[in-house]
Each structure stands twice: as structure tokens, then as C-alpha cells.
Amino acid sequence: MSSVLYDTPGPRARRRERIGSVIGGLALLALLGFGAWQLQKNGIFEAERWSIYFDPPKNQEAADVWNFLLVEGLGATLRAAAIAAPLALALGLILAVGRITPQRWISWPSIFVIEIFRGLPVVLMMLFGVLALNLSFLEAVVFGLVVYNMAIFAEILRAGIVSLPAGQAEAAYAVGLTRTQTLLSILLPQAVRRMLPSLVSQLVVLLKDSSLGFIIGYAELLRSVQNLRDFFGIRYVVPLFAVGAAIYIIINLTLSRLAVYLERRGSAKTAGGVAAAKEAVGGQVQGPDDRSTGA
Amino acid sequence: MDAIFSNLDLYWQGFRMTLWLTLASAATALVLGTILAAFRVSPVASLRWFGTVYVELVRNTPLTIVFFFFIFVAPQVGIRTPSFFVSAWVALSIYTAAFVCEAVRSGINSVGVGQAEAARAIGLTFTQTLQLIVLPQAFRTVVPPLINIFIALTKNTSVAGGFAVTELFAIGRRLANSNPADVIPVLIGIGVCYLILTIPSGILASWVERKVVFAR
Lengths: 295, 216
Description:
The complex is a heterodimer of chains A (295) and B (216).
Chain A: H1 11-41, H2 47-50, H3 62-100, H4 104-118, H5 122-131, H6 137-163, H7 166-174, H8 179-194, H9 196-209, H10 213-216, H11 221-232, H12 237-269
Helix pairs in contact in A: 3-4, 3-6, 3-11, 4-6, 5-6, 6-8, 6-9, 7-8, 9-12, 11-12
Chain B: H1 2-5, H2 8-41, H3 45-59, H4 63-73, H5 84-110, H6 113-121, H7 126-161, H8 168-178, H9 183-215
């Protein structure tokens, strides 16, 4: 494998690489072993601690524990994300169109809204929803997710429209389509398709951000973990946390894989290609998605 | 509005804490992320593998989970930090490092293979190639996304406010709860404090980006 940093290795370099790889692997294994030993020393692997999932203390049913985590906790997380995502997409589409219209009385407010909400922490907007708008916790979480992500979706869609070859719009005008027709039937469909990976990546961010509801008091997955900890006692926090974190990671990894798949499929099919789902760097079509910044 | 003006010192305290947390985490994440990026582009397979797993895992974990780990779970497994600030610092650094790693890595990969091949062809050593050819070009590509990552970090420090660090968000919540009549101005004031940090950085990022495009 040749890269910008080194040539395709010869037999000697390959041997060195293999030796280095084994040493590095051993160092990582040692680190992992130390971590496991540390866990063992603190009694994390005692079966009694994990009994919370099959034979919980305090005369509780294991099914209730799972129900509380998966149905109530995860359910609430997914509910917030499922309500917020389509709303944010729809509003983002309106803002994107607003931003590129030539009428200033439409475009300037759109720019203002996008720039303001892009620069504010989501959790602050959720708090604003609870305290200032008197929303319920679910509504406040949805509010925070929607106002932030609509700004990001708008920027992604705008980047997609801007990245299209100028000939697309010119040809549409030449055959006599109006501005609105051009936008709706020529530019937007291509932009959405081109930006699909970025849009899916942003959905991962939206789902991740729903966990901010924990801070303002929404009873989502992480809050379930904490409530179970409060009920059963601090010694069960590690098993509870392990499952809670695993659920988040599995869902997000699946969605991220989907984005990468869409990106591969898209760049093979469409001539212009699609924007990268992960690397928004390097001259290519750039989606301003948060996937690459960690917002 | 009184709630804002009579509490300007609290605002200032929160602002300083947010700024301090951002700068400390940014510096640490930059170092960690660069080391991880070096792992990910190195010829040593096991290090590459470690870098990939780290990035994939951290990028798909919500920041709130990372904080929850360091505040509530880590003490149970014998990892104790001296203060909530240190926990927040560690959590933000570990989280942001994954994104820094990806930015640096794609910066290095954005330099054309021909550049390095030409450098080797005229007899430059590995260090010279890296120092004179690859890194100066990679650096240009990396700076705008890095600024965007640090803007995201500034906003992410607000999560620390939910875990007992008294930065802007925590101050905002406290003031909003103690001044129920002035909730809206109090929170808008906090929002403005964040925008003071994020909007100029955003403008800086797009300015640098334009400069870099012309330089190519």
C-alpha cells in the first residue's frame, strides 16, 4: 500500500512493520489487560452486580428492568428524535430555499436565523423551551433539536444546491422554467440526492443530541440508567451504564454505516457524485454537517 | 433586564469558565488527536486499528454519555479526578480528540501522492518530505475544519454545565430559576455570550478557508 507518507514497502520494511505491529498490539493488549484488572479489582465482574439483568434485587422482575431501559428509556429517546427529525428537515428545507432567494426581505431573515441557531448550544435552547416557553420536557427537547438541526440541514441543502454545475440552472431557464420550477424540479432533487450521506450523518448527530434531554430532566435512556441506579444502588451503575452506552453506540454505528453505504452507492451511480458523509475536508463538495466537528 | 445587570459578575464568571474549559480541552484534544491521526496513517497495523476503533467508538457516543461516565461511573472503577472541572476537561478532550484526528488525517490524505513521490524522487529524506512538502500543505487544509471543531467544542462545554461545572449554561439555569420573571432576557443574555465566541470564530473559519482556496 503506497500512501503520501511512504512508498509500497519492500520485504525488509514489511518485516519491520510486522514486528512493530506485534509490539504495538502487545502494548495495546497490556493496556486492555490493565483496564480489565482494574475492573476486576473493583469487583465489576461479580455476577451479583450483573444479576440486575436476570435476577434483580429488591424483589423486582428482570423484565421490568429491561422494560424500563428499552421501552421507556430508549422509547423516549427515539420518540424525541423521530418527532424532531422530520420537523427539522422540513424547516431546514424552507430556510435553505429562503437563503438562496434573491429577495432580501426573505433571504436576510433566513441567514439571521441560520447563523444564530447554529452558534448556540442545543442544551441552552432546550432549557429555553422549558423555562421561557413553558413547554413540557418532551416538547422542549424536540424544540431544541429542531431549531438547531433545521439550521444545519438548511446549510447542508444550500451547500448541495451551490455545488451543482451552473449548467443545470441555466438549462432549466433556457427551456423556460421559472425560478420556482427550476428550484423545485431541477436543483433541489439533485441537491437532496447529493447530500443524502451528510443528511443521514446529521441524523446521527440529532439522535446523539437527544441525550442532552438528560440535563434538562427529560426521562430518556440515560435518565432511565440514572433512575435505575438510584433505585438499586450505586454498585449497579457500571452494568447499567454499559448497556445504556452500548444501545446508543449500536444505533449510531448502524446509522453511520448507512451514511457510508449511501455515499458509496451514490458516488457510483450519479455522475457528480455525492458529498462525503464523514470527511467534509479536502476541496470536494463540502457539507457543513456536524459529523465532522462533533457538535 | 435587572436580572442581567445586577448579575454581570456571574455572567463574567461563567464566560471565563466556558472560555477556560474550551481552551484547555482544545489544547489537549489537539495533542491527543494529532497522535491518533499519526496512528491512523502509520504503517503499523495494530496502531492503525486502535485509531480506527477509537474514532468510530467515540464519534458514535453522545457527549452526555462520556460525561456521565467520567462523573458517575469512573469513580466506581477506581478512576477519581480531583474536581468536576477536571472530569469535564478530560471528557471534552477525549470526545473532541476523535474529531481532531479525523480532520488531521484527511488533511494529510488531501495532499496528492505525487507531491511526496516527487519529493522522494529528488532525494529528500522521510523527515524532509514530511517537513517541507506534506505538512505545510496538510496544515492549510486542516485549519478551517479545526476551527469548526473548536466552535463545536465551545458549544459542547455547555454539557459540563449539566454536570456541576459552573460555566455559562449553569449560570444561566441558576439565574433563570432565581429570577422567574426575567427568564427570557437572562437566557438570551447567556445565548449572546456564546454567540460572542462562536460567530467570530465561524467568520474566521470561512475567511481562512477562502484564503486557502486561493493559495492552491
